[in-house]
Design a protein that fits this description.
alpha+beta, Immunoglobulin-like, 2 domains, 6-stranded mixed sheet, 4-stranded antiparallel sheet, 3 helices, binds 2-acetamido-2-deoxy-beta-D-glucopyranose
Amino acid sequence: MICRILLLIILTSCVSGSFVVNVTQTSYQAEENHNITLEWTFTTKPDRSTKTLNILCELFNSHKSSVVYHVHEGVEVSESQDEKFSGRVQSDKDALREGRIRLQLSRLRTDDTGLYLCEVNTDYGFSVGRCQLNVTAADELPLSPRAERRRNISFSAGVLLLIGIPAASAVALFVCVFWVIFCKSG
Ligand SMILES: *[C@@H]1O[C@H](CO)[C@@H](O)[C@H](O)[C@H]1NC(C)=O
Ligand SMILES: *[C@@H]1O[C@H](CO)[C@@H](O)[C@H](O)[C@H]1NC(C)=O
Ligand SMILES: *[C@@H]1O[C@H](CO)[C@@H](O)[C@H](O)[C@H]1NC(C)=O
């Protein structure tokens, strides 16, 4: 997989010229179950039709790749899409005509985290753009100061209980022994 990414990067630098694929943001941060829109822009030629447009957007993570979005000869090919993205990717067709790939990913999952690569191939050039998406689990969010305080209070109460009960028992035992020794004998 690493080889493939490297190959793509090398290929793009070789074919570099007037055709580019840019990302509007190199890294994104989102929370599980939320939506996010990833965006790439590519060089357009006003005199060319989008018929010769081929796009392949893939996610690379934990040693595998999955197809997020595929356009062949200007037509979206939903069959190529990995089933984990089925029904969760929405592309903006108007933006596409203006050279912008806008993919809305909905109901984000933590395993959507990874490197997103879009290869764009036209009869006037080929290039790749990439961005990183991190999806954090909803319960991994840092505790609010109030929740943190509440946790500290219950922790203190627990410690008190833990130390308090044996201490109270010891005092009671001591009083009993004292009473037996002094009061009974006296
Ligand atoms: C995410 O997108 C879906 C449909 O695209 C929408 O129904 C839902 O309300 C959105 N959720 C958030 C948190 O924006
Ligand atoms: C890509 O980025 C470069 C440098 O920021 C900019 O000059 C160029 O217009 C951009 N091209 C597209 C198609 O977004
Ligand atoms: C995403 O995660 C990677 C690896 O854990 C980290 O290097 C990177 O800074 C993170 N990016 C963001 C935007 O949080």
